[in-house]
Write a structure and sequence with these properties.
Oligomer: single chain
Shape: globular
Structural class: alpha+beta
Number of domains: 3
Number of helices: 14
Largest sheet: 6 strands, antiparallel
Strand content: 15-25%
Order of helices and strands: EHEEEHEEHHHEEEEHHHHEHHHHH
Number of strands: 11
Amino acid sequence: MQHETELDPMDLPFDLEADIGIIKEASLECPGVYYIAASRGPFRVADEYYVVDDDTSIISQTAKRYGRRLQESPRFLLYDRNDKSGGCGIIEYEIAKYRYRHHISDPSGSTLHDIAIYNMEHNPEYFGTYPAPACTPYGYTTRYQALMNGVFWIETDQCKEVLAVCYPMWNGDFSEGVMELGITVETDEQAGMDTSLGYLFFDKTAGSLALFELWQLYDSLRNSEYIDYPALMNYIWKYAPEYAAAHNLSNQFGLNDTLGLLLNALGEERELQSFPENNISISEGAGLRFLKIWE
């Protein structure tokens, strides 16, 4: 990560050792806002933080409410960059606004748009939610239901129903096979998928697989009450049985144990775990209607 003005940790106006460990790196990002990297031990990877002086007018009062006030230095607020919804993205955005207004280039190369689009996922109460796409490969959107932030079930003027998933949600979340089933619109590709929100569109069968994979990752989808999960699994078994069988087989052999696979790749031998509760199963009486909308 590149920073504006590097500082000697000894020159910082606060003491954080009791809170986060020894500061290894520090910089002044803008007046009253500091970036720090700190570690609790010589063999621990350093964690990253923002520290905001409560007296600064550059950071809004809304953003300051996300910070944790330091016990040893109560004038300062701490933001943990590992906590995606903890306000770090908001601080990053407000730093970028200061730099833009004062014609200061951002060392990271990020734009205000980049920062806002990425953090809509984590702090929609500040940035707003992802907008539904107006145009799909199957015509223009006539009505839609947001299943979660950035995921929409859409009806078009061609009487087609499709699932739309925006770029920040599908990038890195879908398996390769499901991602290949998504269709894009040419204007998104021309503008750049990360700039245009880059929606992937899925027909109903492909959309059932995309929703199944999102279900495993997002509490917001599981809590939305728009998806009948037993019916979703029944639908997958009926219309995409090869996917269901492959998923269950991978699960049986521990190939869905992401943490175990990562540790093994890092040289730490660990027996891969299977998760029977994550199998795609058939539920008698659940039917096939997995979307509880427009009923």
